[in-house]
From TrEMBL:
Gene3D superfamilies: Magnesium transport protein CorA, transmembrane region. Belongs to the CorA metal ion transporter (MIT) (TC 1.A.35) family. It is found in: Cell membrane. Residues 95-114 are annotated as: Disordered. One of its GO terms (molecular function) is magnesium ion binding. The chain crosses the membrane at residues 309-330, 342-361. This is Mg2+ transporter protein, CorA family protein. GO terms for cellular component: plasma membrane.
């Protein structure tokens, strides 16, 4: 468990590993814990929330935060808001129950290219109070560690000189963490695009024989899964944005400006998710189109082969008829005992070949198909 006290004053960000006894004079508190840690320390965390915020998490929301199969969604009470957002994970991260918060050393195995192994998600839960943010992460969550490091570095003189600002509220901090998760999807989008471009080239290459159909099927299933995940994310963020509109009016101009900045950041995260959804659907269509074009090209190639074989059969069919006629076991056949019979028959066969080939050439049966 990691606990941060965040304020815009000279103290900046202070990290501890114990639950705070009281709220700071200014700023807010971020309590970040793993899912198993949250389950083990549920009673102390509930007591701390009661002490700091005057309320506790309801049992249904506790169950949602402990459920590692829950899709992205948004819910609220009169005291706090709760958002569950699925983040990208490198395979299903399991938890060793004997060591709370520690991941197992044997990750789940998945088939397919390496980029597809990353399309596996775990939910991150956010409970947003007025001055407290509680986040529940999967074990070994890189998102929490990366943003915690970024938060601690934001208090350095160099960061302050570059205009880096600390989160102004728990809701602002939640949106920044969610935005970092969405950036992971955007990076994955570029990798998937390169993989799909490679497969499209292989599928449409007339000189190559494509056999990696299992990988293409895995890619289509992964894209469909990613589409569903992004749709849930978009619905959850849209519900959050709609709930902001129902908040009571801010009492001061500064609070009103903070509210407007919160809406802007929420719309920005929502726009990023919509970009991912649009790109995923476009890749699904591209994959389907490439497969259909591959089968169309194979069918066209088969038709060319059958046309060539048919033309060859038609050329040699009259020759087989002539040789079959003169090959019958009869004593008296025309020109069979003549010294010029062979040459007359050979000339007839050659003439038949020339006539048939000429007819096929005029009808473009033997023309090479342009590529």
């Amino acid at each position: 468990m990691r606990v941060f006290t965040i304020n815009s004053g000279s103290q900046g960000v202070i990290e501890t590993d114990a639950l705070p006894a009281e709220l700071p004079p200014h700023g807010f508190i971020w309590i970040a814990c793993a899912r198993r840690e949250f389950e083990v320390m549920l009673a102390p965390i509930q007591a701390a929330l009661q002490r700091l915020c005057g309320t506790q998490l309801v049992d249904l929301h506790v169950s949602d935060l402990l459920n590692n199969q829950l899709p992205s969604h948004y819910d609220y009470t009169s005291q706090y808001d709760m958002l569950v957002f699925r983040r990208l994970a490198a395979g299903q991260t399991e938890t060793d129950l004997s060591q709370p918060g520690e991941p197992l050393h044997q990750p789940a195995r998945r088939s397919g290219p390496p980029v597809l192994k990353r399309i596996d998600t775990s939910p991150v839960g956010f409970a947003v109070f007025d001055r407290v943010l509680l986040t529940v992460h999967p074990a070994g969550c890189s998102v929490r560690e990366a943003y915690a490091l970024k938060l601690l570095n934001a208090t350095s003189p160099e960061a302050r000189a570059n205009g880096v600002k600390l989160p102004a509220s728990p809701a602002d901090l939640m949106l920044r963490i969610v935005n970092q998760m969405v950036d992971g999807y955007l990076a994955l989008r570029r990798e998937l695009t390169r993989q799909m471009d490679h497969w499209q080239y292989e599928l449409l290459n007339p000189n190559a024989r494509f056999n990696n159909w299992s990988a293409v099927l895995d890619a289509r299933l992964a894209l469909h899964l990613l589409d569903e995940i992004c749709e849930d994310q978009r619905a959850a963020l849209q519900d959050w944005l709609d709930s902001i509109e129902t908040w009571p009016d801010a009492g001061t101009p500064g609070a009103q400006r903070e509210r407007e900045l919160l809406k802007v950041r929420s719309r920005d995260v929502l726009e990023h998710i919509e970009r991912v959804v649009h790109h995923v659907r476009r890749m699904e269509q591209s994959a389907e189109t490439a497969v259909q074009m591959h089968f169309s090209a194979q069918s066209h190639r088969t038709n060319d082969i059958m046309r060539t074989l048919t033309a060859l059969t038609a050329v040699f069919l009259p020759l087989n008829l002539v040789t079959g006629f003169f090959g019958m076991n009869f004593e008296f056949l025309p020109a069979i005992h003549s010294s010029a019979g062979f040459w007359w028959t050979f000339s007839l066969m050659l003439l038949l070949v020339i006539v048939v080939v000429s007819v096929f050439w005029r009808k473009q049966y033997l023309a090479r198909t342009s590529r």
